[in-house]
Design goal:
By secondary structure, the protein is α+β, with helices and mostly antiparallel strands. It contains two helices and two strands; from the N terminus they run E-E-H-H. Strand 1 and strand 2 form a beta hairpin. The relative contact order is 0.13.
C-alpha cells in the first residue's frame, strides 16, 4: 500500500502509538495522534469570533472624529 505525498509516520509523544500526520514534524516539538491531539486541543467556541468583531467595531467608532461635517 503506497502512502500519499507529504504524509509522515510518527510515534505519538503522549501514548506512543504509531500514526501518520500530513506534515513533517519539527524536531523537539511534541507530535500527537488524533486521539491525543483532541485531549491537548482547546475547544473552539463561536463567542471568540463575535467578541473580536464587536471589539473591532468599538475601536472603529472610537477613532472617528466627532466634529466632522
Amino acid at each position: 500500500m503506497s502512502q500519499r505525498p507529504n504524509v509522515t509516520e510518527i510515534k505519538c509523544s503522549d501514548c506512543g502509538k504509531t500514526a501518520t500526520v500530513p506534515f513533517k514534524p519539527t524536531a523537539g516539538k511534541p507530535v500527537y495522534c488524533r486521539e491525543c491531539l483532541a485531549k491537548h486541543s482547546t475547544p473552539r467556541t463561536g463567542t471568540d469570533h463575535k467578541s473580536n468583531s464587536e471589539s473591532t467595531k468599538e475601536q472603529a467608532w472610537s477613532r472617528r472624529r466627532t466634529d466632522w461635517k
